Amino acid sequence: MGRTACFYAVEGVDGSGKSGMVASIVAHLAGSGGSAIATREPGGTPQGEKLRALLLSGADDAWDQQSELLMMTAARVEHVRRVILPALERGTSVVSDRYVGSTIAYQGAGRGMAEDYIRLLHKQAVGDIWPDLVVILDLDPEIGLTRSRQRLSAGAIDEGRFETLDLDFHRRIRESFLDQAARDPDRHAVVNAHGTPEEVRARTIAAIDAWRSGAKVHAPGS
After folding, report:
1. Mean pLDDT of the chain
2. Residues 145, 15 contacting (CB under 8 angstroms)
3. pTM, entire model
């Protein structure tokens, strides 16, 4: 059965191509006769963008892990209430570059915070709102980390706080995303993010179209 206004989240390790893929998905949905907006986390609102600047810049020890989690959640509250829900209510799909899956991966698997606590906090803060479909761009974290560091350096972008962390941290992130998908396959599409941008885009759009038509889309390594 076809779907109209839906909430999509694009997840993956740093450097997996999420931002560009969000734009491609929005264009595809618009080209299919619907309306869609692109957004991101942390961010998406003026308040969220201010928190983003605090969370992604500086040294890794700038924030206690509990403070980090609470700020991520605060940004999400603003994002859900001011952007995501209003768009869905007016019939516009939402495509977000990261959502709570990243919190489970980064603050949970990465930092070692309890996933049950993260999920409870999410439910209490935003009403247990989850994406209709999570697209995970699955990439070797070593490749992604190299790409991300190069992008930040070339653009003089001060958002490299997580890129300062070691490869083992980023490997835990990847494993968490894959674990989330394995536990909830009907809500996740795992897309092989190795290859050219055109190849990855084609795989992603095919997975979204399959999901919209009601087909199974969980296909690690596809």
Report:
1. 91
2. yes
3. 0.91
